[in-house]
């Protein structure tokens, strides 16, 4: 027998064994509904329907199912991240993989929705209280010197300026970009997430609270509790790249200051329940960051032991979650509205006129979502 | 479903091989046809309907032509009808001129049957061959259906003539060694598509994302080279995957590309790029037309027009036409230049420059944009290099050099020329291991999305 023939036979046996082994393990392996590391629901086995077969979605769903439940999927995806970054192709699934940190590579494709700007302007016109607006850059905006230039055709600074220029003059715009940018040698952003760390949030708080009319607390008054050092956030979820260090989640506490006396969450279905502000049970979930204010609810009301009768309405996205802990020392009541989670208009939760100050605090990437503020003027 | 998806590689391929092996000899064609239909249905049921309809039209057109083959005029009617149907299909899906038909047939606009351009050529060639009495029509509908819709052929087939296919299907047996060779070719195609094609495309996108008037000329050259490599590796990768799968079922399809990039004359590029497609246009277009006139100039014009048609087959607009025209024209002119002695390296550089200019047209959105790009290539922006150049050099240059090396025949020639059988046996023994490693690499690279469906050009 010729040597090429032997080699052909070996190839056949080895490849077919590899293919079938992977197939058998994929089919017979244990199926999970949810991936903790990717923080997302996995595809379920597609139910056969003729209409799905007709437009081709059945084949796609079947491929998705195989992909999601592929034997050792997370290892394969991690391997992909390593191979890509090793080959020099630094971008995977919209995430730029630097050795130091992961960054969102698709910042330039974002645009600032006119609809959102108009909604905030209308909110300001319709209500009597003062309106403050802070937009926080993502880590890609603060660390954009890491990103190659071709990804920066529409830098976040321009996006922030466009947003601020669109807001009417009466709204107080508070700049967070330049402060964060100045401090970018510090641990102000997570390495595996687009969001601010508590430390970064502290610096945003210092500026914001002065504009809101208070003296900020100095840094050394806080006791800092490390909740976990295994946090890997939304950027990690998309590429499972382990080449960066995992992140630390901190809680800042001013022990001799005011405390939270009551925290009530309101769901979309009308249910209300009391909770603690932080919820450490989320450390076991796919999204540890949620630990800061617990389950996503449209409205959370916090009462504190401060008795200055001052009330703040905070309209926010997840960038504000680690920011709230600093506000507790200044207000007797904080109403937190998350437009992302709202299914009912704002009036079914609160009357914004009862609050003399309203603070909008958002990450710039949320402004991309043009339906974000649909319900805040109703 | 495409060849470069997990569902195909780890589901459809091993299962279909198993089913095929355990089918009795007589039923093998039928089982292969059923598997192909399943493959089409998993793409979408609409695709299956389309392809079955297409097959039936050409099957009956072929039968009728064959029936009246001795009466030239009568047999021209089914020939005309069959070819018109094929051509209408081609224009209906590749252009938007015939959207009326789509509305009438209630075909959604987003539906695109992958491979329609290849099937059209195949079918037209088949009908003409019967009309010219080169072949007899196929009565066995299973065999004819396999010719049209066999799943190793369906996406980017080598357009082979029916008598070649008939020889293959009637006289085939599959040994374990063939399967091994086939799977190796398949993995080779996968590597071409997933590693080389997709990364080179990412590099092209990196260059393209900069505004054209700020692009430096080095970047422009890098970008177009990346596009050229990406196109070559994507097309030849898909063809290899198809050919490799076919090998596992006993069909030895020819190669579609024979290392065309970085040839040392345009003629080599032209004759090694998408070989069967070019051959098709030569056989069914330029040859009959050339026979009509004997003048030298006339033949040259026919040659160039045939290349223009190839261009239009790739892209039905001015850009495609110009791409074909440039290649046709340079091949013709080359004959006069080549009287002077030139070095091999000069030849390579010259071919490379012409190919890149062609690619500018093939990749551009419209003529204006392509002309701008051409200007930038020639240094029109007065920027030689910028920070992006450094970035590209830092991260992509190694890959690009490897891709460049692999797109030439250097490695193959090295193996062929090394007379020592020891080298050959070492390579033969290493091949299973290398193939397996490459398979794992590609699996990792498509593991997140589950497939890699970037075709660059929808053919």
Number of strands of chain B: 0
* CA-based shape of chain B: globular
User: Percentage of helical residues of chain B?
Assistant: over 70%
Integer count of domains of chain A:
2
Strand percent estimate of chain A: 15-25%
Strand order of the largest sheet of chain A: 7-6-15-13-14-12-10-11
Question: Which structural category do the helix and sheet elements of chain A fall into?
Answer: alpha/beta
Topology:
The complex is a heterodimer of chains A (about 375) and B (about 450).
Chain A: H1 3-28, E1 34-35, E2 40-41, H2 50-54, H3 57-68, H4 73-87, E3 91-92, E4 95-97, E5 102-104, H5 114-126, E6 130-136, H6 139-142, H7 156-166, E7 172-175, H8 177-182, H9 198-211, E8 223-231, H10 234-239, E9 247-253, E10 260-266, E11 272-274, E12 299-304, E13 311-316, H11 324-327, E14 333-337, E15 357-363
Parallel strand pairs in A: 6-7, 6-15, 13-14, 13-15
Antiparallel strand pairs in A: 1-2, 3-4, 4-5, 8-9, 10-11, 10-12, 12-14
Chain B: H1 6-22, H2 28-43, H3 45-67, H4 72-94, H5 99-105, H6 116-131, H7 141-149, H8 151-154, H9 162-170, H10 176-208, H11 217-248, H12 266-272, H13 275-292, H14 296-314, H15 318-337, H16 344-363, H17 367-377, H18 387-407, H19 410-417, H20 421-446
Overview of this structure, please?
- The complex is a heterodimer of chains A (378) and B (459).
- Chain A is α/β, with parallel strands linked by helices.
- Chain A folds into two domains: 3-97, no CATH class; 111-368, no CATH class.
- Helices cover 31% and strands 19% of the residues of chain A.
- Chain A contains eleven helices and 15 strands.
- Chain A has helices at residues 3-28, 50-54, 57-68, 73-87, 114-126, 139-142, 156-166, 177-182, 198-211, 234-239, 324-327; strands spanning 34-35, 40-41, 91-92, 95-97, 102-104, 130-136, 172-175, 223-231, 247-253, 260-266, 272-274, 299-304, 311-316, 333-337, 357-363.
- Chain A has an eight-stranded mixed β-sheet. Chain A has a three-stranded antiparallel β-sheet with strand order 3-4-5. A two-stranded antiparallel ribbon of chain A has the order 1-2.
- In chain A, β1 and β2 form a beta hairpin.
- The longest helix of chain A has 26 residues, at 3-28.
- The radius of gyration of chain A is 24 Å and the shape is elongated.
- The mean pLDDT of chain A is 88.
- Chain B is mainly α.
- Chain B has two domains: 6-171, no CATH class; 178-449, no CATH class.
- Chain B contains 20 helices and no strands.
- In chain B, α10 (176-208) packs antiparallel against α11 (217-248).
- Chain B is globular and about 65 Å long.
- Chain B starts with 5 loop residues before the first helix and ends in a 13-residue tail after the last helix.
- The mean pLDDT of chain B is 88.
- At the A-B interface, α1, α2, α3, α4 and β3 of A face α1, α2, α3, α10 and α18 of B.
């Amino acid at each position: 027998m010729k040597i090429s023939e032997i080699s052909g036979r070996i190839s056949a046996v080895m490849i077919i064994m590899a293919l079938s082994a992977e197939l058998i393990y994929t089919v017979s392996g244990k199926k999970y509904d949810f991936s903790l590391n990717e923080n997302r629901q996995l595809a379920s086995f597609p139910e056969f329907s003729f209409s799905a077969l007709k437009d081709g979605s059945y084949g796609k769903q079947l491929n998705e199912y195989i992909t999601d439940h592929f034997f050792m999927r997370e290892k394969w995806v991690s391997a992909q991240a390593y191979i890509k970054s090793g080959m020099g192709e630094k971008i995977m699934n919209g995430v730029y993989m630097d050795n130091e940190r992961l960054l969102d590579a698709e910042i330039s494709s974002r645009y600032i929705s006119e609809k959102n700007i108009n909604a905030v302007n209308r909110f300001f016109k319709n209500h009597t209280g003062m309106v403050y607006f802070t937009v926080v850059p993502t880590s890609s905006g603060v660390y954009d010197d890491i990103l190659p230039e071709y990804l920066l055709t529409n830098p976040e600074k321009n996006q922030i300026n466009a947003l601020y220029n669109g807001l009417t003059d009466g709204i107080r715009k508070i700049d967070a970009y330049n402060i964060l940018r100045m401090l970018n040698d510090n641990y102000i952003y997570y390495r595996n997430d687009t969001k601010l760390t508590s430390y970064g949030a502290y610096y945003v708080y210092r500026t914001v609270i002065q504009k809101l009319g208070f003296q900020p607390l100095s840094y050394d008054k806080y006791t800092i509790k490390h909740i976990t050092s295994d946090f890997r956030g939304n950027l990690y979820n998309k590429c499972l790249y382990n080449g960066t260090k995992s992140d630390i989640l901190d809680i800042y506490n001013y022990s001799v200051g005011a405390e939270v006396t009551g925290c009530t969450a309101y769901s979309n279905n009308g249910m209300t329940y009391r909770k603690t502000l932080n919820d450490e049970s989320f450390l076991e979930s796919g999204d540890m960051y949620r630990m800061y204010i617990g389950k996503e609810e449209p409205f959370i009301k916090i009462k504190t032991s401060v008795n200055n009768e001052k009330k703040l309405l905070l309209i926010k996205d997840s960038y504000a979650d680690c920011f709230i802990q600093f506000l507790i020392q200044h207000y007797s009541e904080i109403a937190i509205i998350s437009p992302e989670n709202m299914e009912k208009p704002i009036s079914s939760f609160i009357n914004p006129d009862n609050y003399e100050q309203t603070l909008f605090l958002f990450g710039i990437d949320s402004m991309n979502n043009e339906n974000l503020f649909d319900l805040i003027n109703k | 479903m495409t060849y470069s998806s997990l569902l195909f590689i780890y589901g459809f391929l091993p299962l279909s091989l198993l089913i095929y092996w355990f089918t009795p000899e007589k039923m093998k064609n039928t089982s292969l046809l059923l598997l192909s239909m399943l493959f089409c249905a998993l793409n979408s049921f609409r695709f299956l309907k389309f392809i079955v309809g297409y097959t039936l039209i050409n099957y009956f057109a072929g039968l009728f032509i064959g029936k009246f083959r001795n009466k030239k005029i009568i047999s021209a009617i089914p020939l005309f009808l069959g070819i018109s149907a094929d051509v209408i299909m081609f224009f209906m899906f590749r252009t938007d001129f015939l959207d009326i038909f789509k509305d009438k047939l209630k075909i959604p606009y987003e539906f695109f049957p992958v491979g329609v351009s290849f099937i059209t050529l195949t079918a037209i060639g088949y009908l003409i061959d019967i009309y010219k009495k080169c072949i007899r029509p196929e009565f066995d509908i299973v065999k004819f259906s396999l010719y049209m819709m066999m799943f190793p052929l369906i996406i980017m087939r080598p357009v082979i003539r029916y008598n070649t296919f008939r020889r293959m299907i009637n006289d085939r047996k599959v040994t374990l060694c063939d399967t091994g060779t086939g799977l190796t070719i398949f993995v080779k195609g996968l590597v071409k598509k997933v590693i080389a094609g997709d990364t080179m495309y990412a590099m092209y996108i990196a260059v393209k994302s900069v505004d054209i008037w700020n692009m430096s000329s080095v970047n422009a050259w890098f970008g177009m080279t990346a596009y050229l490599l990406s196109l070559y590796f994507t097309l030849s990768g898909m063809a290899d995957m198809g050919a490799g799968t076919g090998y596992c079922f006993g069909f030895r399809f020819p190669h579609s590309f024979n290392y065309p990039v970085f040839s040392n004359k345009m003629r080599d590029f032209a004759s090694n790029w998408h070989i069967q497609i070019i051959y098709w246009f030569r056989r069914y277009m330029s040859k009959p037309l050339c026979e009509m006139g004997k003048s030298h100039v006339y033949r040259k014009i026919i040659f160039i027009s045939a290349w223009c048609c190839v261009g239009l087959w790739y892209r039905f607009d001015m850009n495609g036409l110009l791409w074909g025209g440039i290649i046709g024209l340079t091949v013709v002119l080359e004959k006069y230049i080549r009287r002077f002695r030139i070095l091999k390296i000069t030849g390579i550089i010259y071919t490379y420059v012409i190919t890149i200019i062609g690619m500018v047209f093939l990749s551009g959105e419209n003529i204006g944009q392509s002309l701008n790009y051409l200007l930038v290539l020639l240094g029109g922006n007065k920027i030689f290099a910028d920070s992006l150049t450094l970035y590209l050099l830092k991260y992509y240059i190694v890959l690009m050099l490897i891709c460049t090396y692999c797109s030439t025949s250097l490695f193959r020639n090295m193996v062929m020329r090394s007379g020592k059988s020891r080298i050959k046996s070492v390579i033969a023994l290493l091949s299973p291991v290398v193939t397996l490693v490459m398979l794992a690499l590609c699996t990792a690279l498509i593991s997140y999305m589950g497939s890699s469906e970037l075709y660059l050009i929808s053919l």
